[in-house]
Design goal:
heterodimer; A: 427 residues; mainly alpha; 71% helix; globular; B: 247 residues; alpha/beta; six-stranded mixed sheet; four-stranded antiparallel sheet; 9 helices; 10 strands; 38% helix; 25% strand; binds adenosine-5'-triphosphate; binds magnesium ion
Chain lengths: 427, 247
């Protein structure tokens, strides 16, 4: 540290040194940074060149295979099977309706997030990243349905849906602020409602004919199982984490028992166990068939890991926070709800999302208990003599699909994290 | 000037921590309405423990405490009522980092007192004005200096319109140049007749603002006197030792 000079700047004391521009090395300059990162010394340069060559060779090989050799007919012929399994054709309009609703609500939520930036920020309505995402969506809408050789009517539907999303995003972004605030507050609440309504649309009820879970499949089943487990494991995780820190011994010990039991066994064992015993453990209507039993096992499995993440979050909140809330007269539930949990969950978020991502991947285990999730569907397709030997195409598609879902989860959570971080900008 | 109406009455308070440590060994203190009492004493003498029993952040085993006429018992309704009327300012500020300054102030009045948000926010802005940080209302606590944070913490307590304010070493975590701005706010409150119990080692503040100075040692009150007497002519040996250390 340089000594701080104080005192009046009279004739005898030398004047303070003025600030001067930072030297080259401090200023961001990606070309310079790249040179420094990759080619700082001769060995560095050699290693970098070698690595770049290896990566390029692998990527080129894959590309050549994908464009010239691979026969994507196996995917094109089974698009619907991969997407929704054997969902009855006459009822598929229900799924289209659900996609339309999700697209519209996503657009609205996204736009409102930009229209209402955090209190201490001035937000841009169309930041660069958002324009990038819109461009990507447009490209996907134009290219993917065509690449999958969907009929023109289906292609058209996807264009309309994408256009709907972007339009809603645009409308909400520009006019969100002039909406009555009561309406805006309804938007986060409408997500769980849409989820429940989506369940009805998929499964039937409220006058819609029933589509039994045995007819759900592919991406639909995978996303349904993962989202069900993620949504329900969240309250379980919070309650168990609070229970584990509770002063009531019975609550504490049952929480510990639950967490340790689940974490001590591999998921696949629990899935098989669940198929056999959940029928006796849960109330009659809850686990009527294999799909729902598996869904509950995934939920309880995820809940136990989530509880540990939330517990870590809870212990990272200083005890002074609870004391301050209590000293202001907040009751224990209010103090937890308004002061402690928001901070704890914010801290637990990265670990929780990591958990959600691995849960999404773990849904592939469902194929081992005979469910037709993405992997299960893929296995039936590959077993079809017509598509024999097309494993590489199928597995690559699966990998890309999972990768996209996980990347979306990860990006979404990072955006949420940034939005929730009050200490983002330095003091 | 303080009246004779007692706001806090502590009689023979005994407190043991769960590990068996005898932290309060029969403490009596009575604070009148409008009075400013400064509690001093060496580290570990039980000052924090004592002041925290007033709003039931610590429980005690024997003796009695009544605050503003309400006896502190295990009845949760009494405890919540007392906490609403008793503001507390902590050494570490304990602002809610996930809420803006304005939200920090309005949270409790809105969710506990069930007052209208718009009305509370008007009051909160006036309070922020008064502690001199109205322009920071939409910032987050992490973006403020220590002195500003502690002034927000005081304003947050005031927003509940308490009848008593408790301060536990409010300036000990501050850089020296920020102590003054916080003490200034506290001086203003005292001048308006707020009942205050302040744990602090700020001699100047005690001399100038306190009506009474209390010295604690080993979980007991060893001396209780007007500031002039306490600082110039302490009666008890422990007080002389303590003053010799902090002077
Ligand atoms: N949770 C606890 N369990 C056991 N002992 C405790 C606990 N909290 C405090 N103590 C002990 O009680 C005594 C009084 O603590 P207290 O915090 O009231 O002191 P203090 O006078 O406020 O000191 P300081 O000036 O350091 O803040 C100390 O000896 C401390 O070690
Ligand atoms: Mg203390």
């Amino acid at each position: 540290m340089t000594p701080i000079q104080t005192g009046p700047e009279s004739g005898t004391t030398p004047p303070l040194r003025p600030a001067r521009p930072a030297p080259e090395s401090v200023q961001p300059n990606w070309a310079g940074a790249l040179r420094q990162e990759l080619f700082a010394s001769r060995t560095d340069g050699l290693v970098s060149v070698l690595l770049i060559m290896v990566i390029l060779a692998a990527a080129l090989g894959l590309l050549r295979w994908a464009l010239a050799q691979a026969q994507w007919a196996v995917i094109q012929a089974n698009t619907s099977l991969f997407a929704i399994g054997r969902y009855p054709v006459q009822q598929q309009w229900r799924l289209w309706l659900l996609v339309v609703l999700v697209a519209a609500l996503s657009g609205v939520s996204w736009g409102l997030l930009r229209a209402f930036p955090r209190a201490d920020r001035s937000g841009e309505i169309w930041p660069f990243n958002d324009r990038l995402v819109v461009a990507l969506l447009g490209f996907l809408a134009a290219w993917l349905p065509a690449a999958l050789a969907l009929g023109l009517p289906l292609q058209l539907r996807w264009w309309v849906i994408t256009a709907l999303l972007v339009t809603m995003r645009w409308l909400a972004g520009h006019w969100g602020r002039s909406l009555p605030s009561r309406l805006v507050k309804l938007v986060p609440l409408s997500w769980p409602l849409l989820y429940l309504f989506g369940m009805v649309l998929i499964a039937g009820g409220l006058g819609l004919p029933r589509v039994p879970p045995s007819e759900w499949g592919g991406l639909l089943l995978t996303l349904l199982m993962a989202s069900f487990a993620i949504l329900l494991s969240f309250p379980i995780g919070v309650v168990v984490a609070l229970g584990r820190r509770s002063s009531l011994p019975l609550l504490r010990w049952s929480s510990v028992l639950y967490i340790e039991f689940i974490r001590g066994a591999p998921l696949i064992t629990l899935l098989f166990l669940g198929q056999n015993i959940l029928g006796y453990m849960l109330p009659g209507g809850w686990a009527p068939d294999r799909v729902w039993r598996a869904a509950w096992v995934l939920t309880f499995f995820c809940g136990a890991y989530l509880a540990e993440a939330v517990r870590a979050g809870l212990s990272a909140v200083p005890p002074g926070q609870l004391e301050a809330a209590r000293s202001l007269g907040l009751s224990m539930p209010l103090a937890l709800q308004r002061v402690v949990l928001p901070q704890a969950l914010r801290i637990a978020l990265p670990a929780a999302v990591g958990q959600f991502i691995s849960l999404l991947q773990d849904t592939t285990l469902l194929s081992l208990i005979g469910l037709l999730d993405l992997l299960g569907t893929a296995r039936t397709v590959m077993a079809n003599p017509e598509f024999l030997g097309k494993n590489a195409e199928v597995y690559l598609t699966l990998a890309v699909l999972f990768w996209c879902c996980c990347a979306a989860l990860g990006l979404g959570s990072r955006a949420l994290e940034r939005r929730l971080d009050p200490t983002h900008s330095p003091v | 000037m303080p009246s004779t109406q007692p706001m806090i009455e502590a009689r023979g308070v005994q407190k043991w921590y769960p590990n068996g440590f005898h932290a309060l060994r029969g403490v009596d203190l009575s604070v009148s309405k409008g009075e400013v009492v400064v509690i001093m004493g060496p580290s570990g003498s039980g000052k924090s423990t004592f002041i925290r029993t007033f709003n039931a952040l610590e429980e005690f085993q024997e003796g009695s405490i009544s605050v503003d006429g309400i006896a502190l018992s295990n009845d949760l309704r009494n405890i919540d009522a007392i906490r609403c009327d008793t503001g507390m300012v902590f050494q570490q500020f304990n602002l809610f980092p996930h809420l803006t300054v304005l939200e920090n102030l309005s949270l409790a009045p809105v969710v506990v007192r069930k007052r209208r948000r718009s009305e509370v926010e008007t009051q909160a802005m006036a309070l922020l004005e008064r502690v001199g940080i109205a322009e920071q209302a939409s910032k987050y606590p992490g973006q403020l200096s220590g002195g500003q944070q502690q002034r927000v913490a005081i304003a947050r307590s005031l927003c509940m319109e308490p009848r008593i304010l408790l301060f536990d070493e409010p300036t000990s975590a501050l850089d020296p140049e920020m102590v003054g701005e916080v003490l200034e706010v506290m001086r203003g409150l005292a001048a308006e007749g707020m009942t205050m119990v302040v744990v602090t080692h700020e001699m100047g503040f005690a001399r100038e603002v306190a009506h009474r100075v209390v010295l604690m040692s080993e979980g007991q009150i060893v001396e209780e006197a007007a500031p002039e007497t306490f600082f110039t002519n302490p009666q008890h040996e422990r007080s002389r030792q303590f003053l010799a250390q902090i002077l």
